[in-house]
Amino acid sequence: MKRGSSELQAALANIERNHLLRERHTVEGYEESGNRVTLRQSGRALVDFSSNDYLGLARHPAIAAAMCDSAARYGTGSGASHLITGHSIEHARLEEELAAFTRRERVLLFSTGYMANLAILTTLAGRGETVLLDRLSHASLIDGGLLSGARLKRFAHADVSAARSAIANCSVLATDGVFSMDGDVAPLPALACVASEHDAWLVVDDAHGLGVVGASGRGSLELHGLDAIAAPVLMGTLGKALGTFGAFVAGSAELIELLMQKARSYIYTTALPPPVAAAARTALRIMQREDWRRERLVELTHRFRRLASERGIPLLPTGGTPTPIQPVMLGTEQAALHAQRELSEDGFCVVAIRPPTVPKGSARLRVTLSAAHTESQVDALVETLSRVCSRLVSHS
Ligand SMILES: *Cc1c(COP(=O)(O)O)cnc(C)c1O
Question: How many angstroms separate the Cα of 241 from the Cα of each of 52, 207, 249?
Fold first, then answer.
């Protein structure tokens, strides 16, 4: 791009013309009334059906207290990268506890899931190699593949035979465990076979599965009964169901050691603040102790799907395991934006998701449920969605 404000204006005008302008919704505060997740937006309180705080842990008092205690003891910043002096006892304990939780030999903490995925792909693949990705894989897996210098191949979403036809000579097969925008679970047992038959690393990004699916919340690998041999590289995040921030890779001792030695997104960045690690440790304990959060989430998800399908709201099929990500498919960018505005007028925050986050023609409202929602909030959301969707259909 040439230097100059007219160049920037033209680029922005182009985004706006295509209904793809992105906006932020500034949260001014949260209401504590009961278990309502209500946020204040442009002066109005909206019920938040867009966050990834699936278990309602992001504003848990015990987790906040752990963060405060740790800040008083260790300070607010880690002060350096992990390999200099930024690695504190809170980080070390969190890594041990996550290794025990995921039943892997070792865990390496990262500041974000985005950086963890860059680390995995740049360490396991390089120039002259090929990486195979599900077409709907998260942007950070795609960017990791691009940064690695390997050739990228993509297979049709969740299509095992397409993966099998493309896998020859690939060193890595990477997929979301639970897909972030569709909410379906990857066909992991079959993908694990495909990867293992061709000696490719299976990388599972379980940002949306961890804490949410599996009998004890261990994620999509537990759901499918896959062990560390079947799925040797597991990425999980702490900023979604665990209500804090950061991410980790779990795997064999050698894998983790090599990531630590080589991954630039691990080496050249400041370690997470110790209070964040302390908060994540408390969140992990609460999540394991309080199964009711996951059970409640399942109940609310079933309730939402049952009511929404009675009203003819266009949901995606679940493929067997419903997750708290329940997109309402609207097609065009304009329809999704219009629905977002109407919902906001009725007191709901449900953000429109448009290309390039999702494929062209599949703009949607991404409804996410949380254990912190009430039945009546879910019921009221379905009422409004039903009205908005039928109006959109009659106008099209
Ligand atoms: C959110 C997300 C990430 C990135 O994690 P951050 O910690 O937010 O950087 C990676 N993969 C998937 C599938 C995600 O949904």
Answer: 6, 8, 16
Strand 44-48, strand 106-110: pairing: unpaired
Which of 82, 87, 91, 208 is catalytic? The answer is 208
Q: Give the up-direction half-sphere exposure of residue 299: CA atoms within 13 A in the CB hemisphere.
A: 12
The Å distance, Cα 114 to ligand 1 centre, comes to 6
Cα 7 to ligand 1 centre (Å) = 32
* pLDDT tens digits, 126-177: 999 999 999 999 999 999 999 999 999 999 999 999 999 999 999 999 999 9
Q: Kindly report the pTM of this predicted structure.
A: 0.95
366 pocket-lining for ligand 1 (C-beta < 6 Å): no
C-alpha of residue 238 to centroid of ligand 1, in Å = 9
CA angle 281, 117, 225 (to 5 degrees): 65
Q: What are phi and psi of 77, to 5 degrees?
A: -120, 155
Hey, is 383 helix, strand or coil?
helix
Structure tokens at 395: 């106008």
208 catalytic per annotation: yes
Q: At what angle do helices 113-124 and 139-148 cross, to 10 degrees?
A: 40
DSSP 71-128: HHHH-S---SBIIIII--HHHHHHHHHHHHHHT-SEEEEES-HHHHHHHHHHHH--TT
Task: Enter the DSSP assignment of 216.
Answer: T
